[in-house]
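Throughout our pipeline, every protein is held as a single compact record rather than as scattered files. The remainder of this section carries one protein's record, kept here as part of the documentation.

===
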Amino acid sequence: MDPTAPDQADTENRLRRLKFRAWHRGTREADYMIGCYFDRHHATWDNAAIAWFERLIDEEDVDIMAWALGTQTVPAEYAGPLMDAMVRLDYVDIPR
C-alpha cells in the first residue's frame, strides 16, 4: 500500500466538503451548475480529479460559469476532460 495515497476516509471527507461548497455558492444559478456537476461526476473521480475540483471551486462563480458557458476562454490549468464535461451542461437538473 502506498503510504502517500489518501485513505478512503480522507477521500470521503474531501468529497463531503466539496459537495457542500458546490451547493452553497451564493446564487441559485451557480448552485445548480456547480452542484449538479459535482453530483453527476464525483463518483468517478480519482485523486487528481478531486484536486482539480478543489482548485476550481476556489475560483469566482462568474468565472466558472463563463468557462462552462463558453463566454470566456478556459484557463490552461482547468482545460481538459473535466472541464469538457462541465461545458456540456447535460448534468443540470433544475427542480420545478
About this structure: The CA atoms of residues 25 and 31 lie 6 Å apart. The chain has a mean pLDDT of 92.
